[in-house]
Fold this protein.
Amino acid sequence: MRFTPFLTDLAASVACEAREIERADRVIRVMAPAGWSDARVEAWLDWHDQSPDDWPRLEGAPSRTAAAGPPVLDGALDRWAARLAAWGRSTGVFPSASDAETFASELVASVLLGLAAPSSGLLEGARTPPAAEDQPGPTRNATVFDLGDAGVRARFESDTARRRTACVTAHALSGVTRTLRAVTDAVRRCEGPTSVCADPASNPALGRAALAARRAGADDTAILDAIAGRVFSAPEPEPLKQTRVVAVADPASPMDAPLRAAADGSLADDLVVAFSVRDAEAAADLAIAPGCAIALPAVAATLPDMIDALDALARLWTTALEIEVACGFAPDGRLARRRHAVRPVVLTLANGLDWLVAEAGGVVNENEFTAASGLFAAAASLASSELAEALRPAADWPVAAEAVLAALEMREAHLADLTSELGRAAALRTAQAHAAASASGRRQCLIATLAADAERDLRLGVAPLSGIEVFETRDGGMVRRLHPALAAAITAQGGDVEGAERWLLGRRTLIDSPALGYAELAAKGFTEVELEAVEAALAHVERLDEAFAPPVLEAGFIRDVLGFDQETAGPSGPLALLATPKEITAATEYVFGHRDLSAWPSAPLRLKAILADLDAASTNLTRVAEPFSDVADMTSVELPSRAGIGAAMAMLTQAASEGRRAIRLSRRQASNQPLLHLPDFEPARRAPEPAPQPRPATTERVVERVIERVRTRRKLPDRRKGYIQKAAVGGHKVYIHTGEYEDGELGEIFIDMHKEGAAFRSLMNNFAIAISIGLQYGVPLDEFVDAFLLTRFEPAGRVTGNDSIGSATSILDYIFRELGVSYLDRHELANADAEPLDADGLGSGKADELVPAARFISKGFARGATPDNLVVLPFGRKAEMPGRNGDHGEADACPACGDFTLQQRGGAWICDTCGIAPQMRG
């Protein structure tokens, strides 16, 4: 075949730039078109790394010298095109070396201009030699199951059972692996001798994990290996073979055995069901067919004449795919022979909806896409006939000729009523393709124009039309914006593009927001500080409740102003206190935008139909293009997780009645949430009380036990008691609030220092929350007291307002001295002067005065149930200790800790605070 330059000159104007692309093991610097994103460049590099690099050894083949020009993508495109040109020259596609070079330069130019991109191929596999004689007789695709044959149906049902077994086995193996790893973890977490930790009778956690592993199906040998530390690691399940394709002819009767077998197979795995054997084989041939995609919007924007552009691109890429059939690989020898005999190719027109929306100002003219699809398919068929005339028709052409010619005749009739210039050209090309195929045959028995390939579309830089387009910036960031095709259509119809963007992307502010505007929030206690914090958070959060929760809002504000209780609140957090669920939804849509433009009130009248359902419009275009493809449209249908064989049979019957040629059917996999709610038929058995053991003989021995603490949170009662202690440490006021369980054990504390900075107050509040959580999970108060006692930082010094604590080295030292004295009876931590209580304390300093109990017991907490005549003895005075000479003098200052708690014990001096015994002189 001969080629004349059509795209090469245009590609010379493509601006390229150096880019740094991060690969798996290094960062490389490559040249790439300036408009390509880094993800697109990386996708091309990945594609080239997985592409074959074998060159023909036949005489007269072109050399491996890359084409002239900049080394785009590190020369990957030039090497790929040169390889195809070399194989085309060696197999007789190109009569001269100059034709091969022109072909290679045109192929690279189509990629650089963003007009086309190839699908991925196999790096290695099986291949029929291009020079080999065609096999006599037709070949069949053995991967297709014709369920009308009882023997084939039995084989398919057996394969379905194996797949279902593999799925259940993989799930069970995952559960066994998880339980065995829990056994190993139970041993590793144990603190004690190895013999004790590895004994299920002595290590309760190990016993439970081992029992769970046995119930999951693990034998005791595997459990012993897990106890010994040999981590069980299940191999990854082997990937399933390619999607199965079945043929079910006339699925009308619900009792039809082929229909029932196909429905059962779709519940086990993804399944393509065709309603004729030919369509089933065509669908199976897609797996071995090389392919490419043409971006219609790029073609319309780059080339002035759509008719000539589609003609040239179809001829160029049909030739390239024919060469790829000859030199590419198939998974095995059987499929390689099928590929050699049928020579299937895939040429897809991508982003047809974008092209129509941009060209017609939002009015989707399906006739134009029909014309474009018919013209492109006819041009590809003409190129295949030209290849058949230069080489010879495909080996299976005698078998496929009747169906192909009938399809071309049907397409002529389908295009006869189109009156546009593109429609008339499509009808003319289809008539020419019919005549050429009748005279010379075709090199390809199968030319498909419908095939989904996400990786190919990423290399082409296209995506399905939706309201929001996400694109990559030069610095690697991701930015969301209104899709350019929709923006152009809205502009053409006189609509407000900025209003559409606000509706779709949101405003990211609460100004004028419904229900949660500034006025409504100010009425609920928000000040400028909180409003500014919420506004700053809205720039980066993805949910509205995240902007009304810590750390955006202070915990004290949420608790004291909003009255939010963490224990009784719902999942929306503090936001649930500010608005109703309906109002929260409205505010969320105002701030973060809507999912699509279907309900946009300001949409232009002519755009309402297309904006109502973009997915449906895209599906309609796929149905429009199906008559021009030798492979049926296989739109995926996913059944619910609870669907059974009856629902699958009904779906297949409905698809056949609607005239569908094929359907891809599957069932949604079960999520983490259970589908069944199973009652507990066996109530938990109470462990029998152990029988009293006979008292052993008195012998001394060392006993070690492994004690496992139950790690569950002990909730405080909703109405709890406690006390509030006001004091000042170094002139800084401190309020300590305590909360107690029914038995008087400390369960929570709150620390308030109102006149300190916001950061310091927040740290103290969160510190108190951490201590409270630790207490509720069973951490002994002694541990906290010992950990934070004698910590030194400002403020520190004299303590006023506390009758037990006279000085502290820090706020934390004061707090835990107070808690130790009040809840642990550790009076050695009290360092206040032993003087009677004055008006600042709780007593009057008279030892014989009786104090009414109402002074210490909350009347509100007791709800008036405390007797009025209940009194308590005075408390709070330190026990008098003899001084240096046996008198009741004051204690001296300790040279180590500085507290006035140094007392004489016999002939030695002991500090009651730190326990040091200094040598005193004089």
